[in-house]
Amino acid sequence: MLRALLDKFWDEDLWLPPNTTWEDITPEPDKAVVYSDYRHLLYPIPLALVLIVIRHALEKYWYAPFGKSLGIKNTRSKKAPSNPTLEAAYINCSKIKHKQICALAKQLDLSERQVERWWRLRRSQDKPSTLVKFCENAWRCSFYIFNFSYGFFILSDKEWLWDIDQCYIGYPHQGLTSDVWWYYMISAAFYWSLTLSQFSDVRRKDFWQMFVHHLATIALLSFSWVCNLYRIGTLVLLLHDCAEIFLEAAKASKYANYQKLCDAIFTVFTILWIVTRLGIYPFYIIWSTSIRAPMLLPMFPAYYFFNSLLCLLLVLHLVWTWLILQVAYKAINAGKIEGDIRSSSSDVSDSSHQSNHSTPNRYNSKKST
């Protein structure tokens, strides 16, 4: 039964171009072309754990000391008094309505004001410190710099970087090189690590958009790898990494209170974001996958699924662009960047300066959207 379902799922008519079989693209030493191996998709998962370990080591021994040298505080907020009943209610749901406040106040023989004050303290207790957020953004910025530099270095001599039609000419019999293999594995591992650590990182307003983004990216990488469509995948990765460098750098500089630097980087980021995500991505990448690809190779069902995931990323880009433009509009009116960039901090965050009095330990924190 299971075998029949797997055979139906991996039907060659669904996943491969006409007149192509899995045997044709199975990697074997006697073949002239090196094909991608679907079994290698397991490698990014343990590699993601390695990246998480590297991240925490860098945060502890490099980013945190550097952040402190910039004057970023890591103080804890005042803890809420012990109250098992209120604690149980808080764990059940960190958001509270006036009706619940009245019920708890009556149950504990407290005033509504006392319950509200306890709730504020308890929520403030869960907020990450500015240093924690700085370390998180410093890590991401460092990785994006590395991955973009490595990607551009290995792709600079690849023909499909300069002529996107080469992504389809000769498909699926396109040879895989070791440098592209590592680029794919490291990139997939990073998005796996983001997916795993997202629930313990600083929780922001676009939590679910980012979660969908990570899953869509992993799905894109996985399916493009299985179908040997890695060439277009490398272009999507390279295009996405370049703007992220400036996004994370702008956030880190804001947490370090370098406002003018933050404003300058944010301006560069906004321009680069619009050019890459709303310009090059839809009018070059998606146009190529949707218009040029059917002209150069016979279509098959899995390709349409792959292209749908690319379009899903475009929808997320539009959502984030709206958030970015809102921040930019407020910045123009206020004369500086206010709040978080691309996403808002959790709703328990009242302002950026209050974050200096929140807990530095992300592992003991519960975040609420």
Question: Can you tell me about this structure?
Answer:
The protein is 65% helix and 0% strand. It has helices at residues 2-9, 12-15, 44-69, 84-92, 98-108, 112-125, 130-155, 159-162, 178-197, 207-226, 230-255, 259-296, 301-334. α7 runs antiparallel to α9 and α9 (178-197) packs antiparallel against α10. It is globular, with a radius of gyration of 24 Å. Keywords: DNA-binding, Endoplasmic reticulum, Homeobox, Lipid metabolism, Membrane, Nucleus, Transferase, Transmembrane, Transmembrane helix.
How would you briefly describe this protein structure?
It is found in: Endoplasmic reticulum membrane; Nucleus. With 369 residues, this protein is mostly helical.
Tally of DSSP helical segments: 13
User: SSE string, helix = H, strand = E?
Assistant: HHHHHHHHHHHHH
- Biggest sheet character: none
Spans where pLDDT lies below 50 across 5 or more residues: 344-369
As a percent range, the share of helical residues equals: 55-70%
Number of strand segments: 0
Shape: globular
Strand content: under 5%
